[in-house]
Amino acid sequence: MPFTDYFLAPDDVIAGAALGDGGPVSTELPTVEAKGVDPVVNLGHLEAILTGRPYDVVVAQPRQGRPVGDVSGEQIIVAVTDTLRDALAAATPAALEGAGARLAATEELAGADPAGVTDFLRRLAGLAGRADGWHLYCYWAL
Asked: Which residues contact 68 (CB under 8 A, 6 or more apart)?
């Protein structure tokens, strides 16, 4: 299962530099640790759930899942859309709970504990709420 960390950075250059520093946890960038939450498929579904936009429209956005910086072996940093960042920041606790249940029911997360998914969404929403104009990224290591 891949390892993922979600983090904030002011721009793609600084986000991409976190790859060379051993990931965002080793930097002072605000980070939420996660295990195996795919930034393309899982967060694509999440954005569709929170915004009501079709999944195909969400994943067609130019920034969604786009690699940032150098691809280094089995590690990569990808962009998360500002649309999802803003939807997470604005989500109520009830909306996050509902989104967690729906996301846990997707084929890709079959068997996932809805409470665990919701807990991750709460932590990610807290991070998004601190963005203050910064962008959301995912550090992904295989």
From this structure: 12, 15, 16, 77, 78, 79, 137
User: What is each CA distance from 135 to 6, 12, 51, in whole angstroms?
Assistant: 10, 8, 18
- In this structure, what is the dihedral angle of CA atoms 126, 128, 129, 134, given to the nearest 10 degrees? 140
HSE of 74, CA atoms in CB hemisphere, 13 A? 6
- Across the range 93-103, mean pLDDT stands at 97
Determine the Cα–Cα distance for residues 104 and 115; give it in Å rounded to an integer. Answer: 9
Q: Are 47 and 37 in contact (CB under 8 A)?
A: no
Question: Is the separation of the CB atoms in 10 and 135 below 8 Å?
Answer: yes
pTM of the model: 0.93
